[in-house]
Amino acid sequence: MAIVDANGVPLATTIHSASPAECRLAEETLKEVPGWLRPDKLIGDKAYDSKKLAKELEPYFVRLVAPHLSNRKHKWQDGRTLRRYKRRWKVERFFAWLGNFRRLTIRWERHASNFAGFLHLASIIILLRRL
Length: 131
Description:
Blueprint: E1 2-4, E2 10-13, H1 22-31, E3 41-43, H2 51-57, E4 63-65, H3 79-82, H4 89-98, H5 102-105, H6 112-130
């Protein structure tokens, strides 16, 4: 999981197993962002379309922007909010930049702490390249 700013610079990264749903991990990743860097909007894909998640993010003063699932009967976001979803490519670009680091693409490390260390190192390198 990663949270990036409007320029694609990483603010927080966390690692988890593949089994839990992404919407359950969003709050934990948001806690990793320092308070003065915390975004006011969190853009996610259709997996984040949950009123429960939106309520969980309210104490952090973060609004959730996610497109509606096709089977949703009661839409809770209007079109103005969903126009911001077009900026999601910046998050995907960050993950593409992580793909340039072979150590992260092919997971050589057996321990999660080692992998997290290399993930943070790659995030620092990306941050320094963007400055």
